[in-house]
Amino acid sequence: FLAGETVKLFFGLSLEQRAILKDDLRREIHLGVNGLEESVARAPNSLRVFNLLGLLYQLEGKYYDQNSYQKAETVLRRSLHLNPQNQQAYWPLAAVLFDQDRREEALDLLDEAIALNPDNADSHLKKLVFYKLTGQEETFTSYATWIMEMFPTASVQTSLRNFMSVSATDEKDWLYTVFY
Fold it and tell me: Cβ–Cβ contacts within 10 Å for residue 58, how many?
């Protein structure tokens, strides 16, 4: 629970606030990592725990120590190995790979998640954001149109409207918002 709150706090702060609180935030991340590592030891197949631990390592890698990306990838690959039939095991690993400019690998994972259950709009939405963040505007537009036709629910339509303004240069961290 606390690890999730740490992530919400982190992304709820502006870049300036993060800079001011840099050391305190890093300590919070370490506390979260320690707690989640203990949770993994007690419940070694908890997808939620693995995803949060991977996210905290990803945050540390992105903002503090690049070596933590490897820890994130290791944790999330283990989660995927333990949960190969759950699309939610694919998404955070794709985000970590995306963050490291390993775009083809990330896209392959998103496609694998979709193949597990093509009727799940969430996986398609994650792939859509991938297209947007990689600047593939034409592909984004055609895929968004297809998603609108295939999944005409209000929640999917709302997500699509939100994603129209996504930009890789936005301060808001879309990888966190969408992939976790």
Answer: 29
Backbone φ and ψ for 35, nearest 5 degrees, come out as: -65, -40
* Residue 47 Cα to chain centre, angstroms: 13
Burial class (CB in 10 A: 0-12, 13-18, 19+), 23: exposed
pLDDT at residue 125, as a whole number: 94
Question: Which residue in 126, 132, 136 sits closest to 93, CA to CA?
Answer: 126
pTM, rounded to two decimals: 0.89
- What are the φ/ψ torsions at residue 13 (nearest 5 degrees)? -95, 150
C-alpha count within 13 angstroms, C-beta hemisphere, residue 21: 16
Question: pLDDT per residue over 7-59, tens digit each?
Answer: 888 888 888 999 999 999 999 999 999 999 999 999 888 999 999 999 999 99
Taking the CA atoms of the chain, what radius of gyration do you get in angstroms?
16
DSSP characters over 133-151: HTT-HHHHHHHHHHHHHH-
